[in-house]
Write a structure and sequence with these properties.
Blueprint lengths: L24 H15 L7 E2 L2 H8 L3 H13 L3 E4 L3 E4 L5 H4 L2 H8 L9 H6 L26 H13 L15 H15 L8 E4 L2 H12 L5 E6 L3 H9 L3 E8 L2 E2 L1 H7 L5 E4 L13 H14 L2 E5 L24 E6 L11 E4 L5 H12 L4 H12 L2 H25 L6 E2 L7 E5 L6 H10 L5 E2 L11 E5 L5 H14 L1
Parallel strand pairs: 5-6, 5-8, 8-9, 9-10
Antiparallel strand pairs: 1-3, 2-3, 4-11, 6-7, 10-11, 12-13, 13-15, 14-15
Helix pairs in contact: 1-3, 2-3, 7-14, 8-14, 9-10, 15-17
């Protein structure tokens, strides 16, 4: 252990040769002296040890100490007087020299520095660290072990080798034109979405699409319909933009439009997941779809249609999108490839009404400019060459097997969990009996390697206890084993 240097009132040098502080010896000594000055441990005008003496006491080279003193002098923390020595500067503002601990005692717990009201809303801890891929019951995670990675690597390599610099440029701010053409053709044939490539804007995620739509189409204080229960990250984005979120109940036909009209008939925006409601899994009836579209046309409102995992339907063909029924241009359709393929892809899209497409592009430029072109080029080939269709057909078969494994396993719990509709998608909504504490059970489950998302946290008002059980990422044997461990908790 280094000896204390004469002239330093605190053990600034103890353990200096260890790596715990990070950085080089020079950086660690500089940081310690600077902090001692700012905390007031080294008072203004206090003399510092000569560089030779400090080097001996700290076990450093004199050149290192000289470099630290030179840096502190350049930053204004110390003064070096020829023939007299080195001293803590007397010109630092008094507020800079207040001891940190004393300041904390005076002020108490402080809000994060500089956050605006919107910033505080945006910085709420809505997210949690994800568990390892394949663990039951992670929601919204596909079967990553079954994705054709070698094929994808070849398509990326092809895009990189493409002649000319086009793939290395930003390209269109709306997205790589061949990908927008492929998306328009894909959603037209599989989801009955009526659009041209000029209406498609390529983004990184559904969340970015929701955030853009809210900021572009609402003013602070405007009402936004939000499904209850619903996708919490969407409501967080609306709140952060200053909107007034109105929870509208969901029943077995989807969002209750009549209830929305009673609660906020003048809402500017409605966010819905009509094909596979998140989290309940119900599909919006045709009657409700027409009611919702009629309200939007009358009120001049816009509907965000989040087509969450609608490609995976186990009974009949995927339902047609709400957007295909829209004759008044009131629907912004949102889709993503991150859940169909793999989360790290970071490619999603929105289909805007014709009069809003350019405005969405302009707003997007202010946020992050554009999406990387190379993965867009690879994805365009993945779609056009039929690989996406082949992959989705395979995944429907796999997910149907995993869905059935979950249904069979939960049936053995004697009513301690009850599954909601599970005709499609990548997750099931499982309900606890009234009075169950889904949050406490979820914490306990994580300690034994099971991921549960508490259903109660997806309500803005009175809630019903339960869980979101993702079944796509786990194999049938893993699903059965997880349900057996969950049974012991329940």
């Amino acid at each position: 252990m280094a000896r204390r240097s004469r002239g330093l009132p605190v053990p600034l040098l103890e353990g200096l040769d260890r790596t715990g502080d990070g950085g080089s010896l020079l950086a660690r000594l500089h940081a310690r002296l600077r902090k001692a000055i700012l905390d007031g441990a080294l008072a203004p005008g206090a003399a510092l040890p000569a560089s030779r003496r400090l080097a001996e006491d700290a076990g450093l080279s004199r050149n290192t100490v000289e470099a630290v003193y030179d840096q502190l002098e350049a930053e204004g923390f110390i003064e070096r007087r020829h023939g007299s020595g080195s001293f803590v500067s007397t010109d630092l503002p008094e507020r800079e020299l207040a001891p940190v601990q004393a300041a904390r005692e005076r002020q108490g717990p402080a809000a994060p520095t500089g956050l605006s009201q919107r910033g505080r809303l945006m910085a709420q801890p809505y997210w949690r660290e994800e568990a390892p891929a394949g663990r039951a019951f992670l929601p919204s995670v596909p079967a990553l072990d079954l994705f054709p990675r070698q094929l994808w690597a070849r398509l990326l390599a092809r895009a990189t080798r493409a002649p000319g610099p086009d793939h290395l440029m930003a390209g269109s701010r709306a997205g790589f034109r061949p990908l927008r053409e492929a998306i328009a053709a894909y959603v037209g044939s599989t989801r009955a979405v009526a659009c041209s490539p000029d209406q498609v804007v390529v983004l990184t995620s559904t969340q970015q699409a929701i955030d853009l739509a809210c900021r572009l189409l609402t003013d602070p204080g405007d009402a936004v319909w939000h499904e209850e229960p619903g996708y919490r990250a969407a409501s967080a984005a609306f709140l952060a933009a200053g909107a007034r979120v109105v929870p509208v109940p969901v029943d077995d036909e989807g969002i209750d439009v009549a209830a929305g009209l009673r609660l906020a008939p003048d809402a500017r925006l409605a966010y819905v997941t009509p094909s596979h409601q998140y989290p309940t899994g119900v599909a919006m009836s045709l009657a409700r779809r027409l009611q919702l579209l009629a309200w939007a046309a009358r009120a001049g409102a816009v509907i965000i249609e989040d087509d969450y995992d609608s490609e995976f339907r186990f009974r009949g063909r995927p339902l047609a999108a709400l957007q295909g029924l829209d004759e008044a241009g009131r629907v912004v359709y949102v889709g993503t490839f991150n859940k169909l393929m793999f989360p790290a892809l970071r490619l999603a899209y929105l289909v805007a009404p014709p009069d809003l497409a350019e405005r969405f592009v302009s707003a997007r430029v202010l946020v992050d400019g554009h999406t990387s072109t190379l993965p867009q080029a690879a994805l365009a080939d993945f779609i056009r060459e039929g690989h996406l269709g082949t992959h989705l057909r395979h995944m429907r078969t796999v997910y149907e097997e995993r869905r059935q494994a979950l249904v069979d396993a939960v049936a053995g719990l004697d009513g301690r969990l009850t599954l909601g509709p599970i005709d499609g998608g990548m997750h099931a909504c499982a309900y606890l009996p009234p009075g169950g504490d889904d949050v406490a059970i979820a914490f306990a489950a994580r300690r034994i390697g099971i991921e549960l998302r508490p259903l109660s946290r997806l309500y803005l008002g009175p809630s019903r206890p339960g869980f979101i059980l993702g079944f796509a990422a786990a194999r049938p044997a893993e699903i059965r084993g997880a349900v057996e461990r969950l049974a012991r908790l329940l």
